Request: fold
Amino acid sequence: MTSPQQRQAADKAAPDSVITKPAGPGDASAALPDFEAMSRNAGQLVEALGRSAARYLQPEAPVGPPSEVGEMVRTLGKVAESWLSDPNRTLEAQTRLSQDFLTLWGSTYQKLQGQEAPPVAAPEPRDNRFAHPDWSANPYFDFIKQGYLIATRWAEDLVEEADGIDEHTRHKAQFYLRQVTSMLSPSNFLATNPELIRHTLAENGANLVRGLKMYEEDLAAGGGALRVRQTDPSGFEVGRNMAVTPGEVVFRNDLMELIQYAPTTETVFKRPLLIVPPWINKFYILDLNPQKSFIKWMVDQGLTVFCISWVNPDERHAEKDFESYMNEGIETAIDAVGAATGETEVAAAGYCVGGTLLAVTLAVQAATARKRITSATLLTTQVDFTHAGDLKVFADEEQIKQVEARMGERGYLEGARMANAFNMLRPNDLIWPYVVNNYIKGKAPSAFDLLYWNSDATRMPAANHSFYLRNCYLENNLAKGRMVIGNVRLDLKKVKIPVFNLATREDHIAPAVSVFKGSKRFGGPVDYVLAGSGHIAGVVNPPAKPKYGYWTGGPVKGKFEDWLGAAAETPGSWWPYWLRWMEAQAPERVPARIPGGGALPSLGPAPGTYVKVRS
Reply:
């Protein structure tokens, strides 16, 4: 039964032609759906399904499964072969599964008799898929839930215990199994989710009609590939209510725009700061809004901040490689900073792959004795890819060849493919909740700035992305001293400048242990700091409203677990700690610098034009 407020919200969200008409609160039939409305909605649903089927059968519709499906089948097939090669172990595994289900049958029988029974398999504390009370109170749905958990954990054990497969294959199998089990969760289907059943009956099926309409819209937006919306994009506009820290674009070339931000203090640190964001996504994650903006906070502390805004590349940039991004990006930006401020040296900060590029630039400068960066801040950055996390499952020779072939057709990798890869790292958080909410509940997602940024994907030039995949993820050449840029072999041990190296504890992209191992590759002092949360929230954690603390532990040596065990935890944001580190490197101050007022005139206000180009 729905409340008046719920019915009012449902009517407002439904198209005029969708019949909701739930029974009134005083009606004797209030517990029953309106069968006339349900019948009409069912007719509209069938009609919409017909349209979707017709669209799929059109010649331009995608044909055949994507290459990732074939890779998943091959990988999980190797695990199956491992078990089938030993009948005794296979029998033991089957027996273990049967025993767990027998125990579950017994527990369910007790519940059907009205008795209490402890769960055979309980969800993890942070698993919100089964939060609705009916998942535990109703024996039918409780059996479905526990059966799913038993089967899922049994399958995970099979991958973990499989003999005769290498660790890369095991890692891929774990990743692909997680995709399969997340997809097959009973929480994703109307018939097996009590909350969805209640919701659909309360709305007489109108939610399914709205959901299918949104599905059709998302399919059209993806050009035939489903692009699941995660937020309402209408509430955001870059330059209006996102990326609004005042500043000027003071330089532009084929690869980047350089933004100089306007000071808010009378004096500023003499040494300017250059930010090198990732080109895999857009720089304004560091400037989402005034309350969350790391850039605004830095400006308010008296830093002269410059930030690179990478171009969203197309076929014209196909041959732009890692060296191009270094020379036409970082090195050219340092020249521009010097022209704007008169300074020959800068502090630099790199985020994610922007930090990897910054580390490469440091190694080149160290090898050529061209010292221009005097301290470096690396945010969730990998330079040693030994423990590179789940993205490494996409980086073997066969898969890289497939990516290179795809990029060869257009000159770039589509932004949506990279965005999908990131979403697959956390499917239970970033994929299936939105599928259920949008297409079954029929609810449009709410406006959320972080998810708007997440959906604002960028393309990647073929030459650059191929170099990155091969030299970093596949061959780990930077850490091994085998990377060559501009005929210079790079050795991070020659990098003697101070490095602030931030990792985040729950990072799936640049795992904390990977960043810790990378810290040992530098030849100078490294301050390794571990922040709470993950790749984004751990970095964007403003002091005004800190959600997580951070850990510091002195020199980087030994094992990560030992370092963490001895580290000191500090509540609140790591930003002030970093500022003290920056000030210790170069405390001198000078009068504030006005962007666009010197040797580099303004080319337009921040955030510039490149960041507004959507894929």
Q: What stands out?
A: The chain has two domains: 67-188, 247-425+448-612. Residues 247-425+448-612 form a domain with the Rossmann fold fold (CATH 3.40.50.1820). Residues 1-30, 60-65 have pLDDT under 50 and may be disordered.
